[in-house]
Specification:
- By secondary structure, this protein is mainly beta.
- Helix content is 8%, strand content 44%.
- Strand 7 (111-121) and strand 8 form a beta hairpin.
- It is globular.
Length: 427
């Protein structure tokens, strides 16, 4: 009798769990909240009011504000797939009306994934758009429980009539990252939303979920913007899956739409960085003790040149925004294009450890991190930074610099259900 009661109770629990699972599946899901930088209670009492002198404005927002591929245009994506576009007047977001919507479908890993893309086209004809797939959108999609899409103009050498580039990412935890690594790319017909492969994925292997391995084709917006002639992207295809994190090469695809000749162009890349100069490609190569900044001649003649060498694992010891690398321990900066070294001095903290870094061409910068085990930010310009403290800095996401100020979204608590958009002076 006792045994039977236990079995009945177990069955009821399983049924209840299944019901909850079905409910969650039908009603969607919650994005993971931004990374909490703190680990324990603050070690000392710090001035948590000083930040008010740097704050320009603060207001509620439904979801994090993120940059599009068009300068000065930003977007948000809601859990229901709604997309909103914004400009920025220096202190607050200003709504921009979308140009239209496009229903698209992509085929990957035996699944047909649908999404509605909301897009905006500016007066110069530049295109940006976003869409979201979640489990409740199509019950026939079993492998993917999330996909974020970006629609944008194709690089010039790949342009086709009334066709755009559609990028796709299925890593839910990357939603809040300002620097996105997309794992799929397609030609997208703007007349009917049909898609075709831009690069060849014929030899792609699968991961433990049944999906094609996500590191087979990895694309960044920087690489799209930098495309000159043939497409360069990143891939771990020549390394064992899960062998080691961030082990990858730079691959060259065919030009003018030829997707059959993916060439292993540059081997053992240390980070997702590519920059064309007039006669070379600048990239980062892993070494036994760190990484080298390399110059690869576009002519194909001659050998790669080491511009500068760095010690330490890139992801453990450095942060990068655009062409600027920041040493997280010494606060030395390095410009990958000009080969110039700079130095940031921070007042208000002696042990600040950053986990976020953004900067602008005028010398302004922003960091988020930890000091005395308290969430802190550093704002500054021309090498001089000020540390500020506030509990709300724990859940910052997608910071960017606009109009001489830093702008960031932050979750109001650890549930990730409400956000604020904050604007701070950098100097």
């Amino acid at each position: 009798m006792k045994k039977r009661s236990v079995i009945i109770a177990l069955v009821m629990c399983l049924l209840a769990a299944a019901a909850v699972g079905i409910l969650l599946y039908k009603t969607g899901f919650k994005f993971p909240i931004p990374h909490d930088v703190t680990t324990t209670e603050p070690a000392v009492e710090l001035n948590t009011e000083e930040y008010l002198g740097y704050r320009v404005s603060e207001s509620p927002i439904t979801s994090p504000l993120m940059k599009t591929n068009i300068d000065g245009v930003f977007y948000t994506v809601g859990l229901d797939g709604s997309v909103a576009f914004y400009g920025f007047d220096g202190s607050a977001p200003t709504p921009i009306a979308e140009t239209g919507t496009l229903d698209v479908t992509v085929s990957r890993s035996g699944q047909t994934v649908p999404a509605t893309i909301h897009y905006y086209e500016n007066e110069d004809g530049r295109l940006t758009g976003y869409g979201l797939f979640t489990p409740g959108d199509d019950s026939s999609v079993l492998i993917f429980d999330y996909a974020l899409f970006e629609l944008r103009d194709l690089p010039e050498s790949y342009e086709r009539g009334n066709t755009a580039l559609l990028l796709m990412d299925t890593t839910k935890s990357d939603f809040y990252k300002g620097f996105k690594v997309w794992e799929e790319c397609f030609y997208c017909n703007l007349n009917n939303g049909t898609t075709t492969d831009l690069v060849s994925v014929d030899n792609r292997t699968f991961d433990y979920t049944g999906a094609g391995r996500a590191d087979y084709c990895m694309f960044t917006n920087e690489a799209v913007d930098d495309c000159v002639g043939k497409w360069l992207f990143f891939s771990g295809r020549h390394y064992q899956l899960f062998e080691t994190e961030h082990k990858m090469d730079i691959i060259q695809a065919g030009g003018s739409g030829n997707n059959t000749d993916n060439i292993r162009y540059l081997e053992n890349a240390a980070e997702f960085y590519i920059r064309h100069t007039d006669d070379a490609v600048i990239w980062l190569k892993s070494t036994e003790i760190g990484f080298d900044v390399m110059s690869h001649p576009l002519s194909g003649d001659g050998e790669d040149t080491v511009i500068r060498s760095f010690d330490g694992n890139f992801y453990e010891n450095y942060l990068r925004d655009g062409d600027i690398i920041l040493n997280k321990k010494t606060f030395e900066t390095y410009n990958l294009v000009t080969d110039e070294i700079g130095q940031i001095t921070i007042t208000g903290s002696e042990d600040f450890v950053p986990d976020m870094f953004v900067c602008s061409e005028d010398g302004s910068f922003f960091m988020r991190g930890l000091s005395q085990n308290t969430a802190a930010i550093v704002v500054g310009s021309n090498g001089n930074g000020k540390a500020l403290y506030n509990e709300a800095f724990r859940y910052i996401t997608t910071p960017f610099i606009s109009g001489g100020n830093v702008v960031f979204s932050s979750a109001t608590d650890d549930t990730g259900t409400a956000y604020t958009i904050s604007v701070y002076k950098v100097g």
